[in-house]
Amino acid sequence: MNVTEKRDFSEVLEINFLGDWDLFLQVTEAFKQSLPKMMTTLVDAIKANENAKASEIAHKIKGSIAHFHHIDPVTTARRIEEEGKGLSQNQLYALYSTLEMQLNTLMLDLDVLAKQGSKAA
Amino acid sequence: MPYRSQSILIVDDNSTERILARAMLERLGFSTIHEAENGDIARKKLSTAFEVGSPYNFVLLDWNMSGGSGLSVLRFIRSTKNIKFTKVVIMTASSTQENVEVAIESQVDDFLVKPLTLDLLKAKIEKLKI
Fold this sequence. Notes:
heterodimer; A: Four Helix Bundle (Hemerythrin (Met), subunit A); B: alpha/beta; Rossmann fold
């Protein structure tokens, strides 16, 4: 069983979100709204063999995820960004699938935290 | 935190980055904060702000915006007579040598490596005397 590598959320809340649950909820909502479009752009770039574009959008996705406490999707997005130009389409699809699963895990975790945050805010 | 009257433009195509940058600037006492989600909107806001007599004092600019880098906005600022001395800090996730050289050539005032933190932003603002 894979264990998701995470940073301590209370530390992340303090440093990245200024200890402010309202700010965390606002950023989480913006992230949830913007992520589907970014993931669609990424998979479209892979389909079209546009590796440079895939690398560019992976950079954006990495930036959005880095505010949160899960490390694994940041690592995968970074791999697509940094190594993407030299990978085959199949290798990129595999990384995309991994990223998608890791983001699903992150989203579930963010939903739980958002419920806590709504009570705390 | 003391009230700061300077006006700031945040230019970033990522809404989460803009929300966080705004929140941090508000914590540092700034209240006149505007946002632009791409280079075209940024250029329009920079021009309009000058025309109405309230030019921006400081621009926080993402370097890697999709569909055109922050470089074009930086070059616009430095080549436009009335706003050329606006302080500009580039935000980038990768401070590679190539990025740094291009930005220095285009007369950027400073860099911030993402993810932004309040301490880093505060230090840059104090350094640039904004």
